[in-house]
Structures are given as C-alpha cells and as structure tokens.
C-alpha cells in the first residue's frame, strides 16, 4: 500500500498493460485487474483504491470507462464507494438470519468487528394514520420514535427507524442507544413473543444516501419488522441496509 492506496500509478499501469493482449473491452480489463488483485489477497478488505482521476491518468482511459468498471464491481459487492471519501475493497458482507430477530450489535461483534451507533432522533410524537394502523393505536395517540444508524468498523450498515407503543416501553426516551440498541432494551421490558418480516429491494432517498454514505443508484435491502410481546404489538421498525454491505441468509429442512 502506498500512501493509504493499494497500488501506485506506475504499478497500476503495469498491471493493466499485462491485459492489453486480450480482446476484452477496456472496462472489462479494468474489472479483471481489480478482481484479480482482490481474489489473490494482494488487495485486502478495507484497502483504498486509487481515485478515478488516478485510474484515468495512469491507464490513459476515459473517466466513463473507469466509472463503469468500478460501478459494476461495487454492484457485485467487491468494492464499496463512500461519497466524498473514495473507493475501497469491500468488507465481507454482514449477514442476518432470514426469519430470526437478532441484535445487530451482537451480529457485528460475532464477526470480530467493532460496533457503534449514532442516534438521529429519540422523541415522542403523534402517530400518523399509517403508524396507528400498523400498531393498532387509537386516534391521536402518541408513540415513541427512534432513528439510529448502526455501524460496523465505521461503515454504516443499517438505518433503523422504529415506532414503539409507549404502554409497553416505559423509560424508552431516557435510554442511551449508543450504549445499547433499542432491540436490547425492548427485549428486557417486553420480551419478544412473535415477529414479522417483510423484505423488499428499494432505492434510497436523498436523505438516506447522505446518512448511509451511499450513492443514489445503490440498491438497498429494506426489512419492515413488527414485534409482539405475548399478544401485544410492541413496535414496528423500518430497517434499511445498503445492498453492497448486507445480506439475509437462512437454512431450511424439508423433513
């Protein structure tokens, strides 16, 4: 690594030159170059790639060609691009069980990474019709709301927007959700009895792009979760994950 970047301009030009004998388009040769360096272990998780300008200057290719190569590798999950910062070799995607309800902080720590959170909002507000309907509340009834960004090694992996029925979570607004997650607190005061997941692929809003540090074209995984304690609906949460940083997985048995 040179000055925090995986390769110098001269080495980048040499690596590309080794591929010019192939008939593949220029953008594909750039993709092959980057992919080989990553899969061989020469470029490791978290390493910074040269900037687009450095690729253009070193390889003598157009910005459009370089942008296409890096964009397609990002879509494959090999790279991650952070607006205003640069392009990096992607971390292994975090994963969560498809049907289980887990604490995201525990998931991150089990992978051997550092977890932290940033609280965007923690307040009481009047529930709108949609929230009232999903929580089964009466008209003009107030709810607790929290918005928290969850990080894995300084990379945002989830934006959580949660509404909570105040009757089942006294003290919710007094919690410090940088020290423990809303999930942990709710598990203590209203133990989970049943959960529901609805999973969708969506594009982020402008605000969500800014919060998560992603581009508007990055697909996201949206999980809409409802949780019950005994027979009472306690909370609804909208959990948004950048697609290049997260996946759902599960197993099943046909017997």
Any idea how many domains? 2
Percentage of helical residues?
25-40%
Classification by helices and strands: alpha+beta
- Unreliable runs, pLDDT <50, ≥5 residues? none
What is the CATH topology assignment of the largest domain? Chorismate lyase
Radius of gyration: 22 Å
Per DSSP, the total helix count is 8
Q: How does CATH name the architecture of the largest domain?
A: 3-Layer(aba) Sandwich
Shape descriptor reads elongated
Provide an overview of this structure.
The chain has helices at 9-17, 26-39, 52-59, 63-76, 104-110, 129-135, 182-189, 206-212, and strands at 79-82, 86-89, 94-97, 115-126, 142-152, 155-164, 194-202, 220-229, 232-242, 246-249. The protein is an alpha+beta fold. It folds into 2 domains: 9-89, Arc Repressor Mutant, subunit A, CATH 1.10.10; 94-249, 3-Layer(aba) Sandwich (Chorismate lyase). The strands form 3 sheets. It has a 6-stranded antiparallel β-sheet. A two-stranded antiparallel ribbon has the order 1-2. β8 (220-229) and β9 form a beta hairpin. 28% of the residues are buried. The mean pLDDT is 84.
What attributes characterize this protein structure?
six-stranded antiparallel sheet; Arc Repressor Mutant, subunit A; alpha+beta; 29% helix; Chorismate lyase; two-stranded antiparallel sheet; 8 helices
List the helices and strands and how they pair.
Elements: H1 9-17, H2 26-39, H3 52-59, H4 63-76, E1 79-82, E2 86-89, E3 94-97, H5 104-110, E4 115-126, H6 129-135, E5 142-152, E6 155-164, H7 182-189, E7 194-202, H8 206-212, E8 220-229, E9 232-242, E10 246-249
Parallel strand pairs: 3-10
Antiparallel strand pairs: 1-2, 4-5, 5-6, 6-9, 7-8, 8-9
Helix pairs in contact: 1-3, 2-4
């Amino acid at each position: 690594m040179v000055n925090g970047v995986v390769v110098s301009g001269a080495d980048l030009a040499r690596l590309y030159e080794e591929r010019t004998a192939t008939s593949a388009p220029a953008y594909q040769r750039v993709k092959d170059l980057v992919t080989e360096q990553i899969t061989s272990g020469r470029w490791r998780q978290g390493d910074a790639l040269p900037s687009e300008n450095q690729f253009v200057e070193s390889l003598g290719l157009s910005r459009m060609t370089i942008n296409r190569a890096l964009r397609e590798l990002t879509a494959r999950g090999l790279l991650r691009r952070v607006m205003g910062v640069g392009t990096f070799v992607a971390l292994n995607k975090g994963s969560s069980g498809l049907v289980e309800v887990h604490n995201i902080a525990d998931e991150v720590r089990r992978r051997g990474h550092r977890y932290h959170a940033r609280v965007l909002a923690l307040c009481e507000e009047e529930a709108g019709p949609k929230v009232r309907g999903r929580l089964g509340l009466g008209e003009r009834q107030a709810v607790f709301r929290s918005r928290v960004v969850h990080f894995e090694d300084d990379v945002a992996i989830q934006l959580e927007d949660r509404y909570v029925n105040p009757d089942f979570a006294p003290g919710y607004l007094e919690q410090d959700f940088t020290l423990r997650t809303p999930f942990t607190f709710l598990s203590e005061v209203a133990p989970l009895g049943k959960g529901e997941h609805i999973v969708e692929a969506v594009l982020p809003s402008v605000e969500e792009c800014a919060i998560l540090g992603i581009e508007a074209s990055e697909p996201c995984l949206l999980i809409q979760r409802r949780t019950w304690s005994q027979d009472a609906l306690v909370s609804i949460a909208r959990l948004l994950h950048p697609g290049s940083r997260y996946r759902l997985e599960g197993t099943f048995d046909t017997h």
